[in-house]
Amino acid sequence: MRTRPTLTWTPTGAPAPRTTSLDEVVDVVAAGRVVALSGAGLSTESGIPDYRGAAGRLRNHTPMTYQEFTESPTGRRRYWARSHLGWRTIVGAAPNSGHRAVTELSTRGFVSAVITQNVDGLHQAAGTPAVVDLHGTLDRVICLACRQISDRAELDRRLRAANPSFDGSAGRLNPDGDVELDEESVRAFRLVNCTNCGSRMLKPDVVFFGENVPRPKVEQCYRLVEESAALLVLGSSLTVMSGLRFVRRAAEAGKPVLIINHGPTRGDDHASVRVDLPLGAALTDLAARLPRSPATPSRPAVVTPLFNAG
């Protein structure tokens, strides 16, 4: 039985005012030293759905939890069968205009670092120089028994070899990289062992629901926020604490919090401005309206890669 994790947030009280004007965002970002916090809404224009938007997958899909993955062999088989098909879409996705605009803002010295809640690797594909993958990335795999890190492309080749006739009929893609798949196809799917220790406890190096972000990575993100002049939230409802805590930290320090997102967020009360616009067009416009560089350009922050190793 799959237990549905607590993933929703219900606004209380009067909604915070929203705008379609980027004027205040332009004024703050123009000074530079901005850290961006991106969520699933930034990748929807690349064909990767979100969980909580108007057509969010939480309406019909229960994502994998860490407890089910580690305790249920059936759950692991279901995840890998579905993810094996979903990986083809993830690896084929390309950065959209929003990702490219974030890269431009970084290379021009306005954005010093990006903290992303996404696991699709599209910021790196767009060439953004300083990215923290808060929830890990789907292109790495970890063995929970021996902690060996391996490449997802290699695992994909091994799974293809172990399932030469696998032809599951994939349904819609989910944000965590799996797809809707019939149970008959799941039961026929064969898993492979860790090449180092022989265990079948292979897991994508991402944070599942019910799993904590490693503390060193949290501290790294806190440091980036503390060294910034402002926090720019892009396409996140901030429903879960993993992202919301950085908004709270910035607000407590008196730093401007700028939110560009479709619909309300859990962090709205901490924001100085809340812009409701499509991300691709908004970020492209933002980059066009800024000067060539800030008065005191900031170099990309030094970001040390940290594995999630859940």
The major pleated sheet works out as: 6 strands, parallel
CATH architecture: 3-Layer(aba) Sandwich
Q: Percent of residues in beta strands?
A: 5-15%
**In the CATH hierarchy, what is the class?**
Alpha Beta
Helix content: 25-40%
Strand order of the largest sheet: 3-2-1-7-8-9
Strands, count? 9
Number of helices: 10
Q: Estimate the mean pLDDT confidence.
A: 89
Q: State the shape.
A: elongated
Give the distance, in angstroms, between the N- and C-terminal Cα atoms.
22 Å
Radius of gyration: 20 Å
Low-confidence stretches: 1-5, 52-59
Structural class: alpha/beta
Q: What is the CATH superfamily?
A: TPP-binding domain
Question: What do we call the CATH topology?
Answer: Rossmann fold
Task: Tell me the series of helices and strands, N- to C-terminal.
Answer: HEHHHEHEEEHHEHEHEEH
Count of individual domains: 1
Descriptive notes:
The protein is α/β, with parallel strands linked by helices and 310 residues long. It has one domain: Rossmann fold. 33% of the residues lie in helices and 14% in strands. A six-stranded parallel sheet has the order 3-2-1-7-8-9, sandwiched between helices. Strands 5-4-6 form a three-stranded antiparallel sheet.
Task: Output the keywords.
310 residues, alpha/beta, Rossmann fold, six-stranded parallel beta sheet, three-stranded antiparallel beta sheet, 9 strands, 14% strand, elongated, disordered N terminus
